[in-house]
Specification:
globular; alpha+beta; 3 helices; 4-stranded antiparallel sheet
Length: 96
Amino acid sequence: MIRHICMFKIKEENKEKNLADLLEKVQSLRAISEIKRFDVVLNVEGTPETNYDVSLIFDFDTIADLETYQKNEIHVNFGKFVSAMREARACIDYEM
């Protein structure tokens, strides 16, 4: 099993609206069958400003499934969407 965690720091301009839009748009990724576990979490209010704002936590059966997901048109479109509103991105993939 491969866990894929991707975190985004959202730009301050229109941050609340952008976060709401992201939370809506990320649901489109549920259509990608390779995702076996799908969690989206927001940073808790009152924590350090240096924390990231949102994290996607997805599990895949194999690295090949993760690669298929990354090339999927739905994911590519989501990536373009979120890149316009983020100031930073961090990602890790690990085997469980």
